[in-house]
Amino acid sequence: MKALLRLLVSLVATLAGLLAVTFFIGRIVPFDPVLAVVGEHASAETIVQVRTQMGLDLPLGQQFLNYLSQIAHGDLGRSLLTGNPVLQDLGRAFPATLELATVAILIGVLAGVPLGLWAAVRQGSWVDHTVRVLGLVGYSVPIFWLGLMGLVLFYAHLGWVAGPGRLDISYEYVITPVTGLMLVDTLLAGDWGAFGNAVSHLILPAGLLGYYSLAYLSRMTRSFMLHELAQEYIVTARAKGLSESRIIWRHALRNAAVPLVTVIALSYAGLLEGSVLTETVFAWPGLGQYITNSLQSADMNAVLGGTLLVGALFIALNLVSDLLYRSLDPRTRQTA
């Protein structure tokens, strides 16, 4: 119970700190949300009236307390950019990012972990060098440049994949949104043409983010495996005559999976909030693009709501990784 209480206090304090930092930064940036509403040519009386209606004439501390009170009642405010409640906008934008990030992390895990394992086992060979070069390219080349080159080559020149967006306009108003996940909604509608079109739109941006995730996870997997293969228990296992495959899969990889779980969870969280450039290049109507457009329009309610959602995602995934870490490593349960 004490551990649970400490965890809850830590979660609340983290979210409150995140909100406070974002809120006060949003109030000192050189953007005036009042002008975003009334326009630059409005009269001084109109500006003063709207500022009072929005509560921006109050002290910053009072504004922050009022905002916390709104959040406690499940109200994130109304977006100045769309005119909709922020919660409604987030419910529409987040599934697009969730779908993109989930496919990307699956690509990264299913390809990056085996490649990192193979590179560690074959340390110094051509396999190791190839995997390291792939990781270096994934880290070094700007992701927006890869996205633009991918569109030019695979969409404009070869025509292998669909272009920006989530669906062609011919399918966009045919599919009724149920979950917000386009692959799921097209399957629920039983429209295989729309499903294929959604897959075609998803391949390039998800593959790009998946390659970025692959580069990171392969490097981390290689590092963790090299560390484990150099431990004394591996030498002992080999001295006992255990097969190399058993040593790698049953002993080294099992221990390397403990820190790798945390790396995968945080990488997934990073994809959920850090795919702004990819969403911009591919006109993907997700969370990153929504927050960016809101920030450019001085729509602080939307920015704060998006930041709160991102922070909650990071905290939730960090909590899940911590629980998995404890389940995989008995030493953490003994010291808890």
Offer a quick outline of the entry.
This protein is mostly helical and 336 residues long. 78% of the residues lie in helices and 0% in strands. It is globular, with a radius of gyration of 24 Å.
* pLDDT < 50 stretches: none
Shape: globular
Tell me the strand percentage band.
under 5%
Helix content: over 70%
Protein name: ABC transporter permease
Q: How would you describe this structure to a colleague?
A:
This is ABC transporter permease. The protein has two domains: 2-72, no CATH class; 88-335, MetI-like (MetI-like fold, Orthogonal Bundle), CATH 1.10.3720.10. The protein is 78% helix and 0% strand. It contains 16 helices and no strands. α5 (86-121) crosses α10 (192-229) and α10 crosses α12. The model has no long low-confidence stretch (mean pLDDT 83).
List keywords for this structure.
single chain, 336 residues, mainly alpha, MetI-like fold, 78% helix, 0% strand
SSE diagram, text form:
Blueprint: H1 2-28, H2 33-38, H3 44-53, H4 60-72, H5 86-121, H6 126-140, H7 143-157, H8 169-172, H9 182-189, H10 192-229, H11 232-239, H12 244-273, H13 276-281, H14 287-296, H15 300-328, H16 330-335
Helix pairs in contact: 1-15, 5-6, 5-10, 5-12, 5-15, 6-10, 7-10, 9-10, 10-12, 12-15, 14-15
